[in-house]
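hey so u asked for the seq, here:
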Amino acid sequence: MKKYFSIFFLGVVSLFFATLFTSCADEEVTFPTGRLVTISELQTNYDAYDGDIIRLENVQFTPADTNKAFNGGVGNGTGSRNLQECATGSTVVVFTAASSDFTNLKTPTGKGYFVGKASKFGTTVQILILDRNSFQNMTGERCVPGSGGGGGGTNTATLATILQVRDLAAAKNVVGTTSYTVTEDWKIKGIVTSDASGGNILGQNLFIQNVGGKGIALRFATAHTFALGDELEISLKGTTLSRFNELLQIGGTGLVLANAVKTGTGVINPTIVSVAQIEAGNNESELVTVQGVTFNNANGTVKYTDNSGNQPITQAGSTTTVFSRTTTQTPVSTWANNIVPSTGSVTGHASIFKTGTTIGTGRQLLPRRTSDVP
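ran it, C-alpha cells below
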C-alpha cells in the first residue's frame, strides 16, 4: 500500500511542477524583432510601415541628442530625439511621452539597432519606443554618418561618374513626377560650381560637375555651407533622383548634409557653348558661357529682374532665357537692379524650367554672381 501511495504522490507532484513550468513558458513574452527597414525607406515610403513594429540597424542618436533624457518629464514638446542612420546620415524622430516610465533615461551613446513602432505626427515621421528593450543593443562604437557604418557610404561605395547617374535616371524613366530611390551603393565626386553668395540659388541647392565631364543639381534636406570650388564626395544610396520642372536633381530626405564630405578644392572653367546648344539640352547643369548675345528687351531702363526675372537672349536665331531671382524672393540676385545691356556674354548653369505641361520648353541660363552678367 505504501508503495502505491508513493507512486501516486510522486505522480501528483510531477504533474504540479509540469503544469507550473508549462504555464510559465506559455506566459513568457518574446520582445519583437520588427520589420527591417532603413530610415531612408521609412521616410520615403512611410505608408508601407504605418503602425508596424520596425527595426533600424546601424543607427545612433545624433550628437546633439546623445546622452540626453528621452524626454525629461517636462512635457510632450520635449520628447523628440533624432536617430541617425550610419550609412546615409538620414534621420528620424524618436518620440517619448513625458508620462512614460523611461522619460528620464538617457539616450544611448553608441550605435546598434533600434526597435519601435512606426508613427506619424502631422507630416513628421517618428518612432515610438516600446520599452527599454527598444534601445538596449546600442552599445557599439559610433560611426561617421555617410561614411558606411555597415550600410554602404562614401568610404566603401563604388565611385560613379555624374554621367552614369544621369544614365541611371534615364534607365529608370525619371521624367515628370516619376522618381527613383537609389539602391545602388554608389558615390560621386565633383566640384561645386554654384555660388550661394550671388543670391541666385536657394540655400539647400547646389550644382556640381566632374572635371571635363557632366554636371548635376543637388537639393539637400537642409541648407548647406558648401562653397564654390569645394570638391565633394557624395553618397547616393537612399537618395532620390527626380525632376523639378524637368531639371534632374539628386535629393529627397535621404540627401542629408552627412552624405557629402569635402575632399579638397578645384576649379571648373565654363565651357563656351551656343544658345542653340542650351536649347537642345546638351549641357544641362553644366557651367557654360554664351558669347555675343542680344538681350531682346533691352531699352536702357529694363532691369534683370523685370518680367519676373526672365530676360530672353538671342544668338544666331536661337533664343533662351537668363533667369535672375527678383526682389520679391529670398534670396535675391546681387544684380537684381542692374540695367539689362543690349549685348554681351553671360556665364551660368544651363538649366530648365518647364512651362505649363510642355516638357522640354523653358531652357534657361542661371548666372551665379554679378560678374557672370554684362
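Helices lie at 2-27, 39-44, 162-171, 275-280. Residues 1-29, 148-154 have pLDDT under 50 and may be disordered.
lmk if thats what u needed
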